[in-house]
Specification:
alpha+beta, 434 Repressor (Amino-terminal Domain), Umud Fragment, subunit A, single chain, 2 domains
Length: 251
Amino acid sequence: MAQSLAGQNLKYLRKLRGWTQEEFANKLGIKRSLVGAYEEERADPRIDVLEKLCDMFKLTLDDLLRRDLAEVKGNYLAKRRQQKLMSENNLIHFVPVKAAAGYLAGYADAEFIDELNTFTLPMLAGGNYRAFEIVGDSMLPTPSGSIIVGEKIENLDDAKSSQAYIVVSRNEGIVYKRLEKNNRNKTKVTLVSDNPSYQPYQMNSEDILELWMAQMVVSKVTSQQRWDVNQLASLVNNLQEQVTVLKKKYN
C-alpha cells in the first residue's frame, strides 16, 4: 500500500507543477519510461528517486509513502507551501559584481554566504539556487547588468553541453558562458559566448570550483537588446563558423 501511494503521489506532484513525464524525468535524473512505470504502479520508485522528490517538494519520506497528497491538498499542501516560503533552502543568495572577489575567496564559507542579500522566486521548484550579476557584452543579447539565477550542478558529468552556466573558476573568476564538453578529453571543457565576436576558449575541468545551470535571467526593461534581421543573419553565420572550428579541433 505504501509503495502504491508513492506512485500516486509522484503522479500528483508532477501534474501539480504542470510538468510532462519527460520534464519530470529530467529533473529526477531518470528515464521517462521509469516515470510512466511508477505512475502506473508497474514498478516501485527507488529510494534515491523518493529522496529527490522529498528535496524538490520539501516533503518527508513518510509524506510520500503514507499520505495521499491529492486527498489532503487543501490544508496539507497549503501548509507545505508556507513552510517552503519560510525555509532558508529556498532563499536565493545574490552575488553582485562588487562581491565577486569576496565570493571567490569565500564561496565555501557559510558566514560569507549568509552576509549576501537574498530573495525568492515562487516559480522555481525546490533546489539549490544562486544569483549572479554579470557585466560585459559577451553573452548578448543578454544585456550587461543582468542577474542570472542558476541551479547548482554538483558534478561536471551532470552538466549538459550547449547549456548556459555560471562558471566559477580559479583563473577566470565568475563568468557566464555556454559549456561544451569533450567526450574524448574530459580534462577540458570549452566555454562559448553567445556573442560571436568573442571566441570560444578552453578551461581545465579541475579549475572549475562551482557550476550553476542558468534557469532565469532578470534584467531591466530599458536594457533589453533588440536585434534586426541583418544582425541575426550575421550571428547565425558566425555561429556556424565557430561550430566548424570546434568540430575540426575535436576531430
